[in-house]
Amino acid sequence: MAILEPFALAIGFLLSYSYDFTNSYGFSIVVLTIIINIVIFPLTLRQTRSTKRMQDIQPELKKLQKQHKDDKEQLNKAIADLYKTKGINPLGCVLPLIIQMPIWFALFRVLREPLVFIPKEAALFTQLGDHSSVLFYTMDLQIPASEIAAWIDRIPYLILILFVVLTALFQQNQLTKKSGNSNNPQAQQMQMIGKIMPLFFGFISWTLPSGLVVYFLTGNIFRIGQQALIVKIEENQKTKEIEKDQKEDNNTSETSTEDKDEKDDPRKNRKKRRRK
Known about the structure:
The chain is mostly helical and 276 residues long. It has one domain (2-258). It contains twelve helices and no strands. The radius of gyration is 28 Å and the shape is elongated. It starts with a helix and ends with a helix.
């Protein structure tokens, strides 16, 4: 596809540039993954915040479900209003994955046909001509695990795929572990996608170039740390807001108490009138 050509050429250049510093095909993919994740960080931030907010409003969703249990139309309207009030996009968790698709397809083409997209003057271009010179922990990252004939030789590839699935599951559980079960169809759909996606990535990793699997694994690990940081920041902000609200409530309560005491104490009222 012509639309992927610019992405593939840019990825080929970044990959060859990373190889000049790492002198390792595998670690150059790791560096490339980190660069891509930094570039798409705003999308990831929106995705994480949307998932966290969806988790936080579960108690309110359950109240709405009880309140409108006999009227689905009114329930959907109330849920839509709640999402709007809380600034939640139900598709906010999936949108970053969709936007990354061109990058994945372009990276797939680069790793499938690296000599087409990597600059000919790059050192990596020369090294890729000899597969044995770019092995990564005994793995040829230019081919998928399904093309390895002997099962004993497939073990490193299978371990790599297993780590992809486990880190993806951990990443999903990182944000949804406190949300519990919900009767909301949209929430159930998002939870189902969160369970299926790790298995889907594990399944397709069997037939994809192993370099792309390294990209998946590195991206998962990067986002686990990133999500932990974002969640911590969100919780600190929420704690500060709660403390601020409590402080304002206390100030309002103290003011009301003082006004009431002045009204109840006739001597204070007489002193005020004398001052006047």
